[in-house]
Amino acid sequence: MKLIYIVDANASDREGMKQYLELSGYEVQAFEELHGVQLAIARQVPDLLLLDVNLPDGDGFSYIKKLKQNYVFPVIFVSGRIAESDRILGFELGADDYICKPFSSKELVLRVHALFRRIDVSVSAFRSGSTWVMGNSIMQLDEVSHLFSIDGKQVPLTAAEWRIMSYLVSNSGILITRSQILEHCFDYSFESYDRIVDTHVKNMRAKMGPLGSQWIETVRGYGYRFAGHSTASHAVVASEDKE
Questions:
Q1: For 140-193, where are the alpha helices, taking DSSP H only?
Q2: In sequence order, which ranges of 77-158 are alpha helices (DSSP H)?
Q3: How many DSSP H helices and E strands does the chain contain?
Q4: How many domains is the chain built from?
Q5: Which residue has the higher pLDDT, 74 or 122?
Q6: What percent of the chain lies above the pLDDT cut of 90?
Q7: Domain stop point among 120, 153, 184
Q8: How many angstroms from the chain centroid is the CA of residue 48?
Q9: At 49, is the pLDDT very low, low, confident or very high (cuts 50, 70, 90)?
Q10: 187: helix, coil or strand?
Q11: Whether residue 101 is found in the same domain as residue 7
């Protein structure tokens, strides 16, 4: 059973989300303030955090910025701050989704289901780990141990970044449009959210170092392409050459 933490200052919203998620088979703990969830995370890391922005003892945006420095579990903002600038900021800070209030309980549950489904698909894609090369650089990915490294240096990725990387790598060498990334990694298909994809890719490249823009190529006006080559395919070619 997946564990979900909720932080929301509104008692009605907080209890409503808790009730519907529990009815959907999740274990849920709800908190009114950041202090409570901080103590809970120290004891047990959740599978998902539902986080409001305006809270009695702090700002959700500031909190997630610090949280992502030490944890990689997914976060969904659930907030009455519905301006596009707020939504974009939430994604820039590492959120996996942003649900605007008011919303239906069914929508919330469907969004949570979709998030966990995408994560499960990503885990299956890299269950045994994989190694990729580009020139003299080597990239290794292992979703089970949640390790991603380039030339032996570990690179921390958020849950959303893992899904994007998984999708790009599984389509190595193929042009992937922003719309495809939105639909496969976020369940979005709105043009206004294209900037979210660019923001995530920008953050990923920065973490990947000087070769980030070479591993993930920009196809101007269309989208992105992963430029790495699987060592497994190299091994097959080498074997065929020997024969």
A1: 159-170, 178-181
A2: 84-92, 105-125
A3: 10, 15
A4: 2
A5: 74
A6: 51
A7: 120
A8: 11
A9: very high
A10: coil
A11: yes
Rounded to a whole number of angstroms, the distance between the first and last alpha carbons of the chain is 50
Strands 75-79, 48-51: pairing kind: parallel
CATH number at residue 178: 1.10.10.10
User: In angstroms, rounded to a whole number, what is the distance separating the alpha carbons of residues 235 and 176?
Assistant: 26
Question: Could you tell me if residue 204 is inside a domain?
Answer: yes
Average pLDDT over residues 206-232: 90
- Residues 87, 192, 76, CA angle at the centre, nearest 5°? 30
Beta strands, E only, the chain: 3-7, 27-31, 48-51, 54-55, 58-59, 75-79, 97-100, 130-134, 137-142, 147-150, 153-154, 176-177, 216-219, 223-226, 229-230
d(CA 14, CA 23): 14
Strand ranges of the sheet holding 3-7, from the earlier edge strand across to the other edge: 27-31, 3-7, 48-51, 75-79, 97-100
Q: Take residue 180 and report the two structure tokens written for it.
A: 């495809």
User: In which domain, by residue range, is 21 found?
Assistant: 3-120
Task: Assess whether 8 and 60 both reside in one domain.
Answer: yes
pLDDT of res. 241: 44
- Shared-domain flag, residues 227 and 146: yes
